Amino acid sequence: MEESVRPSSTVNGTPQHIDLQSIPLPPQRGTGSAAAVGTTSARPPYAAWESRYRAWVIGSDVFTAFALIVMSAFLIDRSDPHDMHALGTAAAFLFGLSVCRAWSPRVLGEGAEEYRTLGRGLVTTAVLVALGGLLFGALAVQPWVFIVVPMISVFMFLQRYALRQVLHRRRRLGECLLPVLAAGSPDTVADLIARTKADPHVGWRVEAVCTYSGAGAERGSGEVEGVPIVGKLDDLAGHVRRGGYRVVAVTADQHWNPKRLQRLAWDLEGTSAEMVVAPMLMEVAGPRLNVSGVLGMPLLRVTAPMFTGGRRLVKEALDRFGSALLLTLVSPLLLAVAVAIKLDDRGPVIYRQRRVGRDGHAFTMLKFRTMVTNADKLKQDLQADNEGAGPLFKMRKDPRITRVGGLLRRYSLDELPQLFNVVSGRMSLVGPRPPLPEETAKYAPDARRRLLVKPGLTGLWQVSGRSDLSWAESIRLDLRYVEDWSLALDLVILWKTFRAVVQGRGAY
Protein backbone atom coordinates (compact mmCIF):
# COMPACT_ATOMS: atom_id res chain seq x y z
CA MET A 1 0.00 0.00 0.00
CA GLU A 2 2.99 2.30 0.23
CA GLU A 3 4.61 2.02 -3.19
CA SER A 4 2.70 4.49 -5.36
CA VAL A 5 1.62 8.07 -4.87
CA ARG A 6 -1.80 7.68 -6.47
CA PRO A 7 -3.25 4.40 -5.24
CA SER A 8 -6.71 3.10 -5.93
CA SER A 9 -8.81 1.61 -3.14
CA THR A 10 -12.10 -0.25 -3.32
CA VAL A 11 -15.02 0.22 -0.97
CA ASN A 12 -18.12 -1.94 -1.32
CA GLY A 13 -16.92 -2.95 -4.77
CA THR A 14 -16.69 0.67 -5.95
CA PRO A 15 -13.19 1.86 -6.95
CA GLN A 16 -12.16 5.12 -5.38
CA HIS A 17 -9.17 6.86 -6.97
CA ILE A 18 -7.36 9.02 -4.48
CA ASP A 19 -5.65 11.76 -6.44
CA LEU A 20 -3.57 13.85 -4.10
CA GLN A 21 -1.19 14.70 -6.92
CA SER A 22 -3.69 17.26 -8.15
CA ILE A 23 -3.76 19.06 -4.81
CA PRO A 24 -2.26 22.56 -5.14
CA LEU A 25 0.55 22.48 -2.61
CA PRO A 26 1.79 25.46 -0.62
CA PRO A 27 4.99 27.02 -1.93
CA GLN A 28 7.93 24.72 -1.19
CA ARG A 29 10.49 26.92 0.53
CA GLY A 30 14.12 26.19 1.04
CA THR A 31 15.76 26.83 4.36
CA GLY A 32 17.56 29.81 2.98
CA SER A 33 14.61 31.34 1.14
CA ALA A 34 13.20 34.78 1.71
CA ALA A 35 10.14 33.22 3.31
CA ALA A 36 12.34 31.75 5.99
CA VAL A 37 13.34 35.17 7.15
CA GLY A 38 9.78 36.40 7.23
CA THR A 39 9.53 38.54 4.08
CA THR A 40 6.73 36.76 2.19
CA SER A 41 3.02 37.28 2.56
CA ALA A 42 1.11 35.08 4.96
CA ARG A 43 -0.51 31.94 3.60
CA PRO A 44 -4.18 31.09 4.12
CA PRO A 45 -5.14 29.34 7.37
CA TYR A 46 -5.43 25.99 5.62
CA ALA A 47 -3.51 25.11 2.49
CA ALA A 48 -5.43 23.59 -0.40
CA TRP A 49 -4.08 20.12 0.24
CA GLU A 50 -5.42 20.18 3.82
CA SER A 51 -8.92 21.05 2.69
CA ARG A 52 -8.78 18.49 -0.10
CA TYR A 53 -7.57 15.75 2.23
CA ARG A 54 -10.30 16.48 4.77
CA ALA A 55 -12.89 16.41 1.99
CA TRP A 56 -11.64 12.98 0.91
CA VAL A 57 -11.90 11.67 4.48
CA ILE A 58 -15.43 12.99 5.04
CA GLY A 59 -16.61 11.94 1.59
CA SER A 60 -15.28 8.39 1.86
CA ASP A 61 -16.69 7.99 5.39
CA VAL A 62 -20.16 9.20 4.39
CA PHE A 63 -20.22 7.21 1.13
CA THR A 64 -19.23 3.97 2.85
CA ALA A 65 -21.64 4.39 5.76
CA PHE A 66 -24.62 5.30 3.60
CA ALA A 67 -23.92 2.56 1.03
CA LEU A 68 -23.80 -0.08 3.77
CA ILE A 69 -26.91 1.35 5.44
CA VAL A 70 -28.89 1.20 2.17
CA MET A 71 -27.74 -2.37 1.51
CA SER A 72 -28.64 -3.38 5.05
CA ALA A 73 -32.13 -1.89 4.74
CA PHE A 74 -32.89 -4.26 1.88
CA LEU A 75 -31.13 -7.31 3.36
CA ILE A 76 -32.26 -6.99 6.99
CA ASP A 77 -35.65 -5.29 6.82
CA ARG A 78 -36.41 -6.34 3.21
CA SER A 79 -37.84 -2.90 2.59
CA ASP A 80 -36.90 0.33 0.88
CA PRO A 81 -33.98 2.35 2.23
CA HIS A 82 -36.31 4.95 3.75
CA ASP A 83 -37.41 2.86 6.74
CA MET A 84 -36.90 4.01 10.31
CA HIS A 85 -33.88 1.79 11.00
CA ALA A 86 -31.92 3.07 8.00
CA LEU A 87 -32.76 6.72 8.58
CA GLY A 88 -32.09 6.48 12.30
CA THR A 89 -28.70 4.80 11.77
CA ALA A 90 -27.68 7.40 9.16
CA ALA A 91 -28.64 10.25 11.51
CA ALA A 92 -26.84 8.61 14.44
CA PHE A 93 -23.72 8.14 12.31
CA LEU A 94 -23.57 11.80 11.26
CA PHE A 95 -24.27 13.03 14.79
CA GLY A 96 -21.87 10.60 16.51
CA LEU A 97 -18.86 11.35 14.31
CA SER A 98 -19.51 15.10 14.38
CA VAL A 99 -19.87 15.30 18.16
CA CYS A 100 -16.74 13.20 18.72
CA ARG A 101 -14.81 15.43 16.29
CA ALA A 102 -13.79 12.50 14.11
CA TRP A 103 -13.48 14.91 11.15
CA SER A 104 -11.54 17.63 12.95
CA PRO A 105 -8.44 18.79 11.03
CA ARG A 106 -6.58 18.60 14.36
CA VAL A 107 -6.75 14.78 14.45
CA LEU A 108 -6.64 13.75 10.78
CA GLY A 109 -3.34 12.00 10.20
CA GLU A 110 -2.34 12.39 13.87
CA GLY A 111 -1.08 9.05 15.20
CA ALA A 112 -3.49 6.88 17.17
CA GLU A 113 -5.64 9.90 18.08
CA GLU A 114 -7.43 9.83 14.71
CA TYR A 115 -8.42 6.19 15.20
CA ARG A 116 -9.35 6.87 18.83
CA THR A 117 -11.78 9.65 17.94
CA LEU A 118 -13.18 7.62 15.06
CA GLY A 119 -13.74 4.70 17.43
CA ARG A 120 -15.51 6.93 19.94
CA GLY A 121 -17.73 8.28 17.17
CA LEU A 122 -18.72 4.81 16.00
CA VAL A 123 -19.40 3.60 19.55
CA THR A 124 -21.58 6.69 20.05
CA THR A 125 -23.40 5.77 16.83
CA ALA A 126 -24.16 2.27 18.11
CA VAL A 127 -25.39 3.62 21.45
CA LEU A 128 -27.64 6.17 19.75
CA VAL A 129 -29.14 3.51 17.46
CA ALA A 130 -29.88 1.27 20.46
CA LEU A 131 -31.42 4.09 22.49
CA GLY A 132 -33.41 5.28 19.49
CA GLY A 133 -34.87 1.82 19.03
CA LEU A 134 -36.04 1.75 22.63
CA LEU A 135 -37.35 5.31 22.53
CA PHE A 136 -39.38 4.98 19.32
CA GLY A 137 -40.44 1.38 19.74
CA ALA A 138 -38.28 0.05 16.91
CA LEU A 139 -37.15 -2.93 18.97
CA ALA A 140 -35.65 -4.92 16.08
CA VAL A 141 -32.43 -2.87 16.12
CA GLN A 142 -30.10 -5.67 17.21
CA PRO A 143 -28.78 -6.36 13.66
CA TRP A 144 -28.13 -2.67 13.18
CA VAL A 145 -26.25 -2.31 16.48
CA PHE A 146 -24.27 -5.55 16.36
CA ILE A 147 -23.81 -6.11 12.60
CA VAL A 148 -24.28 -2.95 10.54
CA VAL A 149 -22.39 -0.46 12.74
CA PRO A 150 -19.42 -2.86 13.30
CA MET A 151 -19.32 -3.53 9.55
CA ILE A 152 -19.24 0.22 8.88
CA SER A 153 -16.44 0.51 11.45
CA VAL A 154 -14.25 -2.09 9.72
CA PHE A 155 -14.56 -0.44 6.30
CA MET A 156 -14.07 3.01 7.76
CA PHE A 157 -10.88 2.15 9.64
CA LEU A 158 -9.45 0.56 6.50
CA GLN A 159 -10.34 3.64 4.46
CA ARG A 160 -8.76 5.99 6.96
CA TYR A 161 -5.60 3.88 6.95
CA ALA A 162 -5.42 3.87 3.13
CA LEU A 163 -5.88 7.64 2.95
CA ARG A 164 -3.24 8.17 5.62
CA GLN A 165 -0.74 6.06 3.68
CA VAL A 166 -1.25 8.30 0.66
CA LEU A 167 -0.64 11.38 2.81
CA HIS A 168 2.45 9.86 4.42
CA ARG A 169 3.91 9.01 1.00
CA ARG A 170 3.49 12.60 -0.14
CA ARG A 171 5.17 13.80 3.05
CA ARG A 172 8.15 11.51 2.54
CA LEU A 173 8.53 13.19 -0.86
CA GLY A 174 8.69 16.57 0.89
CA GLU A 175 5.10 17.58 0.09
CA CYS A 176 1.98 18.18 2.18
CA LEU A 177 4.10 19.39 5.10
CA LEU A 178 3.13 22.06 7.62
CA PRO A 179 5.68 24.91 7.81
CA VAL A 180 6.91 25.25 11.39
CA LEU A 181 8.66 28.08 13.21
CA ALA A 182 10.50 26.69 16.24
CA ALA A 183 11.30 28.89 19.23
CA GLY A 184 13.47 27.95 22.18
CA SER A 185 17.05 27.13 23.10
CA PRO A 186 19.33 25.97 20.26
CA ASP A 187 19.71 22.50 21.83
CA THR A 188 15.99 21.78 22.21
CA VAL A 189 15.23 23.23 18.77
CA ALA A 190 17.95 21.04 17.25
CA ASP A 191 16.32 18.00 18.85
CA LEU A 192 12.95 18.99 17.38
CA ILE A 193 14.45 19.46 13.91
CA ALA A 194 16.14 16.04 14.09
CA ARG A 195 12.87 14.38 15.08
CA THR A 196 10.90 16.02 12.26
CA LYS A 197 13.50 14.91 9.71
CA ALA A 198 13.54 11.36 11.06
CA ASP A 199 9.73 11.10 11.00
CA PRO A 200 8.45 13.11 8.00
CA HIS A 201 5.08 11.31 8.14
CA VAL A 202 4.21 13.51 11.14
CA GLY A 203 3.95 16.36 8.65
CA TRP A 204 6.15 19.05 10.21
CA ARG A 205 8.99 20.87 8.47
CA VAL A 206 10.91 23.36 10.60
CA GLU A 207 11.66 26.26 8.27
CA ALA A 208 12.75 28.97 10.70
CA VAL A 209 14.04 29.35 14.26
CA CYS A 210 13.78 32.08 16.90
CA THR A 211 16.11 32.10 19.89
CA TYR A 212 16.41 34.42 22.87
CA SER A 213 19.38 36.31 21.44
CA GLY A 214 18.59 35.82 17.76
CA ALA A 215 22.33 35.47 17.15
CA GLY A 216 23.20 35.73 13.46
CA ALA A 217 19.68 36.68 12.33
CA GLU A 218 20.59 40.17 11.12
CA ARG A 219 23.60 38.94 9.13
CA GLY A 220 21.69 35.91 7.82
CA SER A 221 24.46 33.64 9.09
CA GLY A 222 22.87 32.05 12.16
CA GLU A 223 21.31 28.61 11.87
CA VAL A 224 20.41 25.50 13.83
CA GLU A 225 20.82 22.16 12.06
CA GLY A 226 20.72 23.94 8.71
CA VAL A 227 17.58 25.94 9.55
CA PRO A 228 18.06 29.72 9.67
CA ILE A 229 17.64 31.78 12.83
CA VAL A 230 15.28 34.59 11.84
CA GLY A 231 15.04 36.61 15.04
CA LYS A 232 14.53 36.84 18.80
CA LEU A 233 11.75 35.36 20.91
CA ASP A 234 10.16 38.80 21.26
CA ASP A 235 9.96 39.14 17.46
CA LEU A 236 8.35 35.74 16.95
CA ALA A 237 4.76 36.86 16.27
CA GLY A 238 5.85 39.29 13.58
CA HIS A 239 7.74 36.58 11.71
CA VAL A 240 4.70 34.30 11.93
CA ARG A 241 2.44 36.94 10.40
CA ARG A 242 4.86 37.64 7.55
CA GLY A 243 5.86 34.03 6.89
CA GLY A 244 2.45 32.37 7.21
CA TYR A 245 3.71 29.49 9.36
CA ARG A 246 1.13 26.88 10.35
CA VAL A 247 2.77 25.77 13.60
CA VAL A 248 4.74 27.67 16.23
CA ALA A 249 6.61 25.04 18.23
CA VAL A 250 7.74 26.35 21.62
CA THR A 251 10.57 24.22 23.02
CA ALA A 252 12.30 24.44 26.40
CA ASP A 253 14.30 27.55 27.17
CA GLN A 254 15.18 29.23 30.46
CA HIS A 255 13.95 32.56 29.07
CA TRP A 256 10.36 31.43 28.59
CA ASN A 257 8.07 32.65 31.36
CA PRO A 258 4.27 32.76 31.79
CA LYS A 259 4.02 36.41 30.77
CA ARG A 260 6.01 35.94 27.57
CA LEU A 261 4.04 32.81 26.59
CA GLN A 262 0.72 34.52 27.28
CA ARG A 263 1.74 37.52 25.19
CA LEU A 264 2.77 35.19 22.37
CA ALA A 265 -0.58 33.40 22.48
CA TRP A 266 -2.40 36.75 22.25
CA ASP A 267 -0.20 37.96 19.39
CA LEU A 268 -0.87 34.77 17.39
CA GLU A 269 -4.64 35.23 17.52
CA GLY A 270 -6.01 35.79 14.03
CA THR A 271 -3.04 34.17 12.30
CA SER A 272 -2.87 30.82 10.56
CA ALA A 273 -0.54 29.44 13.23
CA GLU A 274 -1.26 26.86 15.90
CA MET A 275 0.82 27.31 19.03
CA VAL A 276 2.30 24.05 20.35
CA VAL A 277 4.18 24.05 23.67
CA ALA A 278 6.43 21.17 24.71
CA PRO A 279 5.46 20.28 28.33
CA MET A 280 9.08 19.32 29.15
CA LEU A 281 7.94 16.00 30.65
CA MET A 282 9.77 12.84 29.58
CA GLU A 283 7.73 10.85 27.08
CA VAL A 284 4.35 11.56 28.67
CA ALA A 285 1.56 12.15 26.19
CA GLY A 286 -1.90 11.13 25.09
CA PRO A 287 -4.74 10.48 27.56
CA ARG A 288 -2.52 11.05 30.63
CA LEU A 289 -2.23 14.78 29.94
CA ASN A 290 -5.14 17.09 30.75
CA VAL A 291 -5.30 20.86 31.06
CA SER A 292 -7.59 22.38 33.67
CA GLY A 293 -7.99 25.75 35.36
CA VAL A 294 -7.36 25.89 39.11
CA LEU A 295 -7.20 29.14 41.12
CA GLY A 296 -7.21 31.07 37.86
CA MET A 297 -4.13 29.25 36.56
CA PRO A 298 -3.96 26.78 33.65
CA LEU A 299 -2.49 23.57 35.08
CA LEU A 300 -1.25 20.57 33.16
CA ARG A 301 -2.48 17.48 34.99
CA VAL A 302 -0.46 14.29 34.56
CA THR A 303 -2.45 11.26 35.69
CA ALA A 304 -0.72 8.12 36.91
CA PRO A 305 -0.10 5.29 34.39
CA MET A 306 -2.91 2.73 34.30
CA PHE A 307 -1.53 -0.63 35.44
CA THR A 308 -4.87 -1.95 36.76
CA GLY A 309 -8.56 -1.26 36.28
CA GLY A 310 -11.22 -1.84 33.66
CA ARG A 311 -9.09 -1.11 30.60
CA ARG A 312 -6.47 -3.57 31.79
CA LEU A 313 -9.15 -6.23 32.22
CA VAL A 314 -10.26 -5.60 28.65
CA LYS A 315 -6.65 -5.89 27.50
CA GLU A 316 -6.28 -9.15 29.44
CA ALA A 317 -9.42 -10.61 27.86
CA LEU A 318 -8.35 -9.55 24.37
CA ASP A 319 -4.89 -11.05 24.95
CA ARG A 320 -6.28 -14.44 25.97
CA PHE A 321 -8.96 -14.58 23.29
CA GLY A 322 -6.77 -13.15 20.53
CA SER A 323 -3.84 -15.47 21.20
CA ALA A 324 -6.11 -18.52 21.36
CA LEU A 325 -7.67 -17.51 18.05
CA LEU A 326 -4.27 -16.93 16.46
CA LEU A 327 -3.02 -20.32 17.67
CA THR A 328 -6.00 -21.97 16.02
CA LEU A 329 -5.45 -20.12 12.74
CA VAL A 330 -1.68 -20.71 12.52
CA SER A 331 -1.65 -24.28 13.83
CA PRO A 332 -0.84 -25.72 10.35
CA LEU A 333 2.08 -23.27 10.10
CA LEU A 334 3.30 -24.25 13.58
CA LEU A 335 3.30 -27.90 12.55
CA ALA A 336 5.17 -27.16 9.31
CA VAL A 337 7.84 -25.13 11.14
CA ALA A 338 8.27 -27.87 13.74
CA VAL A 339 8.80 -30.49 11.02
CA ALA A 340 11.32 -28.25 9.21
CA ILE A 341 13.37 -27.72 12.39
CA LYS A 342 13.36 -31.43 13.18
CA LEU A 343 14.45 -32.42 9.69
CA ASP A 344 17.21 -29.77 9.64
CA ASP A 345 19.42 -31.15 12.44
CA ARG A 346 17.25 -33.62 14.41
CA GLY A 347 17.48 -31.40 17.50
CA PRO A 348 14.64 -30.23 19.78
CA VAL A 349 11.94 -28.08 18.18
CA ILE A 350 11.21 -25.74 21.11
CA TYR A 351 13.79 -23.57 22.86
CA ARG A 352 12.91 -22.71 26.46
CA GLN A 353 14.49 -19.68 28.06
CA ARG A 354 14.02 -17.93 31.39
CA ARG A 355 12.78 -14.36 30.97
CA VAL A 356 11.62 -11.71 33.44
CA GLY A 357 7.96 -10.72 33.42
CA ARG A 358 5.72 -8.31 35.27
CA ASP A 359 6.99 -7.14 38.68
CA GLY A 360 10.25 -9.03 38.13
CA HIS A 361 8.73 -12.53 38.24
CA ALA A 362 10.63 -14.99 36.05
CA PHE A 363 8.87 -17.34 33.63
CA THR A 364 9.81 -19.77 30.89
CA MET A 365 9.40 -18.25 27.43
CA LEU A 366 8.86 -20.55 24.46
CA LYS A 367 10.42 -20.07 21.02
CA PHE A 368 11.14 -22.21 18.01
CA ARG A 369 14.80 -23.20 18.13
CA THR A 370 16.80 -21.25 15.55
CA MET A 371 20.35 -22.02 16.76
CA VAL A 372 22.49 -25.08 17.18
CA THR A 373 21.79 -27.12 20.30
CA ASN A 374 24.92 -25.92 22.18
CA ALA A 375 24.41 -22.23 21.32
CA ASP A 376 24.56 -21.04 24.96
CA LYS A 377 27.98 -22.58 25.47
CA LEU A 378 29.32 -21.03 22.25
CA LYS A 379 28.12 -17.57 23.28
CA GLN A 380 31.17 -16.97 25.51
CA ASP A 381 33.50 -17.48 22.55
CA LEU A 382 31.63 -14.83 20.52
CA GLN A 383 31.53 -12.01 23.08
CA ALA A 384 34.26 -10.09 21.24
CA ASP A 385 32.01 -9.92 18.16
CA ASN A 386 28.92 -8.71 20.03
CA GLU A 387 26.99 -6.06 18.05
CA GLY A 388 24.11 -5.75 20.48
CA ALA A 389 23.11 -2.55 22.27
CA GLY A 390 23.66 -2.25 26.02
CA PRO A 391 23.47 -5.60 27.81
CA LEU A 392 21.96 -7.30 24.73
CA PHE A 393 23.98 -9.86 22.75
CA LYS A 394 23.34 -9.65 19.00
CA MET A 395 25.27 -10.51 15.84
CA ARG A 396 24.09 -9.81 12.32
CA LYS A 397 25.79 -12.98 11.08
CA ASP A 398 25.65 -15.23 14.12
CA PRO A 399 27.38 -18.54 13.20
CA ARG A 400 25.15 -20.40 15.67
CA ILE A 401 21.98 -19.84 13.59
CA THR A 402 20.83 -22.84 11.57
CA ARG A 403 19.66 -22.73 7.95
CA VAL A 404 16.00 -23.00 8.93
CA GLY A 405 16.58 -20.64 11.87
CA GLY A 406 17.74 -17.83 9.61
CA LEU A 407 14.46 -17.91 7.69
CA LEU A 408 12.39 -18.13 10.86
CA ARG A 409 14.16 -15.14 12.38
CA ARG A 410 13.80 -13.01 9.28
CA TYR A 411 10.01 -13.25 9.43
CA SER A 412 9.76 -13.65 13.24
CA LEU A 413 8.18 -17.08 12.92
CA ASP A 414 10.36 -18.27 15.80
CA GLU A 415 8.25 -16.06 18.11
CA LEU A 416 4.95 -17.82 17.41
CA PRO A 417 5.17 -20.30 20.37
CA GLN A 418 5.05 -17.27 22.66
CA LEU A 419 1.31 -17.25 21.94
CA PHE A 420 1.14 -20.08 24.50
CA ASN A 421 2.77 -17.71 27.02
CA VAL A 422 0.08 -15.14 26.24
CA VAL A 423 -2.71 -17.69 26.68
CA SER A 424 -1.24 -18.69 30.06
CA GLY A 425 -1.19 -15.05 31.18
CA ARG A 426 2.58 -14.61 31.52
CA MET A 427 2.87 -12.36 28.48
CA SER A 428 0.71 -9.93 26.52
CA LEU A 429 0.23 -9.53 22.78
CA VAL A 430 1.68 -6.00 23.06
CA GLY A 431 4.17 -4.80 25.64
CA PRO A 432 7.87 -4.20 26.37
CA ARG A 433 10.41 -6.74 25.15
CA PRO A 434 10.78 -9.68 27.62
CA PRO A 435 14.30 -9.27 29.11
CA LEU A 436 16.77 -11.88 30.27
CA PRO A 437 17.56 -12.11 34.03
CA GLU A 438 21.16 -10.98 33.40
CA GLU A 439 19.85 -7.93 31.56
CA THR A 440 17.57 -6.84 34.40
CA ALA A 441 20.46 -7.18 36.87
CA LYS A 442 22.15 -4.30 34.99
CA TYR A 443 19.03 -2.12 34.73
CA ALA A 444 19.14 1.48 35.89
CA PRO A 445 16.12 2.60 37.99
CA ASP A 446 14.33 4.11 34.97
CA ALA A 447 14.76 0.95 32.89
CA ARG A 448 13.18 -1.14 35.68
CA ARG A 449 9.88 0.61 34.99
CA ARG A 450 9.59 -1.70 31.99
CA LEU A 451 8.73 -4.44 34.49
CA LEU A 452 5.55 -2.70 35.69
CA VAL A 453 3.58 -4.35 32.87
CA LYS A 454 3.61 -7.73 31.18
CA PRO A 455 6.20 -8.20 28.42
CA GLY A 456 4.78 -8.44 24.93
CA LEU A 457 4.97 -10.64 21.89
CA THR A 458 5.40 -7.35 20.03
CA GLY A 459 5.73 -3.69 20.99
CA LEU A 460 7.01 -0.29 19.97
CA TRP A 461 10.53 -1.76 19.77
CA GLN A 462 9.27 -4.33 17.23
CA VAL A 463 7.77 -1.76 14.87
CA SER A 464 10.54 0.83 15.23
CA GLY A 465 13.63 -1.05 14.10
CA ARG A 466 13.94 -4.07 16.44
CA SER A 467 17.61 -5.15 16.52
CA ASP A 468 18.71 -1.99 14.69
CA LEU A 469 17.77 0.19 17.68
CA SER A 470 20.29 1.48 20.20
CA TRP A 471 19.91 0.42 23.81
CA ALA A 472 18.83 3.91 24.86
CA GLU A 473 16.23 4.06 22.10
CA SER A 474 14.86 0.62 23.03
CA ILE A 475 14.46 1.70 26.65
CA ARG A 476 12.84 5.00 25.58
CA LEU A 477 10.27 3.20 23.44
CA ASP A 478 9.45 0.66 26.14
CA LEU A 479 9.03 3.40 28.75
CA ARG A 480 6.84 5.38 26.40
CA TYR A 481 4.58 2.35 26.06
CA VAL A 482 4.46 1.81 29.83
CA GLU A 483 3.60 5.47 30.44
CA ASP A 484 1.12 6.07 27.59
CA TRP A 485 -0.54 2.70 27.03
CA SER A 486 -4.00 2.60 25.46
CA LEU A 487 -6.09 0.07 23.56
CA ALA A 488 -5.88 2.23 20.44
CA LEU A 489 -2.07 2.21 20.67
CA ASP A 490 -2.13 -1.59 20.99
CA LEU A 491 -4.18 -1.91 17.80
CA VAL A 492 -1.82 0.41 15.90
CA ILE A 493 1.22 -1.58 17.09
CA LEU A 494 -0.35 -4.90 16.09
CA TRP A 495 -1.03 -3.62 12.60
CA LYS A 496 2.47 -2.16 12.23
CA THR A 497 3.94 -5.44 13.51
CA PHE A 498 2.34 -7.29 10.61
CA ARG A 499 3.99 -4.88 8.17
CA ALA A 500 7.38 -5.04 9.92
CA VAL A 501 7.35 -8.85 9.94
CA VAL A 502 6.41 -9.10 6.27
CA GLN A 503 9.21 -6.70 5.34
CA GLY A 504 11.71 -8.37 7.72
CA ARG A 505 12.98 -5.01 9.00
CA GLY A 506 15.63 -5.12 11.76
CA ALA A 507 15.42 -8.90 12.23
CA TYR A 508 18.57 -11.01 12.60
From TrEMBL:
One of its GO terms (cellular component) is membrane. Residues 30-39 have a biased composition (Low complexity). It is found in: Membrane. Residues 1-15 have a biased composition (Polar residues). Residues 315-502 form the Bacterial sugar transferase domain. Keywords: Membrane, Transferase, Transmembrane, Transmembrane helix. It holds the Pfam family Bac_transf. The chain crosses the membrane at residues 53-76, 82-100, 121-138, 144-163, 321-341. It is a multi-pass membrane protein. Residues 1-39 are annotated as: Disordered. The keyword Membrane applies. Coiled coil: none annotated. It comes from the Bacteria. GO terms for molecular function: phosphotransferase activity, for other substituted phosphate groups. Belongs to the bacterial sugar transferase family. This is Exopolysaccharide biosynthesis polyprenyl glycosylphosphotransferase.
